[in-house]
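Running this now, will post back.
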Amino acid sequence: MPVEPVHTPDAPDAIGTYSQAVRSGDWVFLSGQIPLDPQTMQMVEGDMQAQIRRVFDNLSAVAGASGGSLADCIKLTVYLTDLNHFPLVNEVMAEYFSEPYPARAAVGVAALPKGAAVEMDAILNLRA
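Update: finished.
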């Protein structure tokens, strides 16, 4: 099955040797997104909720460019430099997802690119 790169100007450009996402058939693998503003490529200003929203907005834009949406997400991985922010992830996630929720993992990490406090990646299945 061919692999197609996915790109949208509505999410931050890749800052390395990777694609925003790749699609293979009905499967889409979204690369990690941090709270970068896609217009300025700078970290968003504001509190942790604003940062989490920006990450979900970035993931949503890439999902849309693949032909899907966050409703097609079957697996979400959340990386946090402070796991005390996990309740905020749950709170903001409820604004972007409805049941059935995707499978999810939360991982505490020492550091993230550009000093971000949160990063997320996702797997979509674009079912008919």
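The mean pLDDT is 96. More later if anyone needs it.
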